[in-house]
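Good morning C.,

I know you're traveling, so I'll keep this short. The sequence:
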Amino acid sequence: MTKTPATSQAPVASAPKRSLTPRRRAREYALQGVYQSLVMRRAGSLPNAAAIAKQLAEDPGFRRCQHDLFQGIFAGVLERTDELEGIITPALDRPINELSPVEHAALLIGVYELAVDLSVPYKVAINEAVELAKTFGGTDGHKYVNGVLDLLAQKLRSTEIQAG
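The tokens, ready to paste straight into the viewer:
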């Protein structure tokens, strides 16, 4: 009687399925564009927003994002980066240039929605930025983003928070 060796295959780990609504996709593409811009700035180059947006638009998944939301966030963050960083900096425990580019981009998007786009409820603005950090950032970066945005929301949206 010959035994055939048992073949054991490890289960294939698949990434958890994410529900990508057109709005979530728009924020993900905005994060990627802001990330590219930050990396270019840190390298001493001037980012070209039009070129970055064109490159992102070439991705097949871009067709399924809410284009006006992407454009509003991406352009809004790039136009107001210095102002948004001025809002973020007092809430940080380290210099802003020591943040990972993903955390930095997620915070810029979160603060943009908290400070500029008042049509987005503060809880949604925080949650969306945290989800971006979870998806693209390091292990615990989303916790940092959550803490900073929660603190900033107390100042930026105090009336909305008090109203419940």
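Safe travels,
E.
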